[in-house]
Design goal:
Largest sheet: 8 strands, parallel, barrel
Distance between the termini: 44 Å
Family: Belongs to the TrpC family.
CATH class: Alpha Beta
Pathway: Amino-acid biosynthesis; L-tryptophan biosynthesis; L-tryptophan from chorismate: step 4/5
Pfam family, one: IGPS
EC number: 4.1.1.48
Number of domains: 1
GO molecular function, one term: indole-3-glycerol-phosphate synthase activity
Radius of gyration: 17 Å
Order of helices and strands: HHEEEHEHEHEHEHEHEHEHH
CATH superfamily: Aldolase class I
Strand order of the largest sheet: 1-4-5-6-7-8-9-10
Bound molecules: indole-3-glycerol phosphate
Number of helices: 11
């Protein structure tokens, strides 16, 4: 059993509980109407989705000491284009309340980072003020991904569609994903390799599709690599959560983008 299988098995249970207990509209949140796609496509620097990530299955505890609202505000002040908040509790120590707290504190798009397998999670993300949800190609069969994609779109949410290999990139294209995240980390083995972005970026027309390179970004040189491949955005968790000087970290990673 891979870690992804374990997480998905846990999600099935969570969804059952949500279906019994979650009342639609029971969460109240500020709504911020900005499109990540539009702002990232227009930016002349690498855009950063900074992540609120206390822990992970591959790294264990990363930083348990930050307040989500404070961290979110800091990210925004330092130049984040969006904020990703992990809301998975068993494996990442996040909660939906973390996302609500960040949502109230900032005015940039917020991504609900979770393993979405059911419409009810999309309802909850929407109610809690998310602008975007994550859909992971490796988590579900294509027809189900398609349904959830359309469901989220109808609610006015944007979708970060995450892929890790050629086959999944073809699924992204068939579904018509506008924002594609190439995860450099294999969710089954935890291996991280920026060459994944270089390999898969070639398959898309980056004039139409917004490419985000996810995971393993530490230095300006890493960012140069994925920028060259065609990424206009990066998703950075651990490096942000461990940074002692966020302003400096952002300045290093927000490199100018050529044409
Ligand atoms: O901490 P990193 O290596 O910067 O990675 C961030 C982000 O890409 C990673 O948290 C992630 C990418 N896809 C996911 C899917 C589920 C949970 C987490 C993730």
């Amino acid at each position: 059993m891979t870690i992804l299988d374990k997480i998905l098995a846990e999600k099935e249970k969570e969804v059952e509980v949500l279906k019994q207990h979650y009342r639609q509209g029971s969460l109240q949140a500020k709504k911020v109407d900005v499109s990540l796609y539009d702002t990232f496509m227009k930016a002349d620097k690498m855009s950063i989705i900074a992540e609120m990530k206390r822990a992970s299955p591959s790294k264990g505890l990363i930083n348990d000491g930050v307040e989500p609202a404070d961290q979110g505000k800091l990210y925004e002040e330092c130049g984040a284009g969006a904020i990703s908040v992990l809301t998975d509790e068993p494996f990442f120590k996040g909660t939906i309340e973390d996302m609500q707290a960040v949502r109230s504190a900032v005015n940039i798009p917020v991504l609900n980072k979770d393993f979405i397998i059911d419409e009810i999670q999309i309802e909850r993300a929407y109610d809690a003020g998310a602008n975007l949800i994550l859909l992971i190609a490796a988590a579900l069969p294509e027809p189900r991904l398609q349904q959830l994609y359309q469901y989220a779109e109808r609610k006015g949410l944007e979708i970060l569609f995450e892929v890790h290999n050629e086959e999944e990139m073809l699924v992204a294209k068939r579904i018509g994903a506008k924002i594609v995240g190439i995860n450099n980390r294999n969710l089954k083995t935890f291996e991280v390799d920026l060459a994944i972005t270089e390999r898969l970026a070639d398959m898309v027309d980056t004039k139409e599709t917004l490419l985000i390179s996810e995971s393993g970004m530490k230095t300006g040189a890493d960012v140069e690599r994925v920028a060259k491949a065609g990424a206009r955005g990066i998703l950075v968790g651990e490096t942000m959560m461990r940074s002692k000087d966020l302003k400096e970290t952002f300045d290093q990673l927000r490199i100018p983008l050529g044409e």
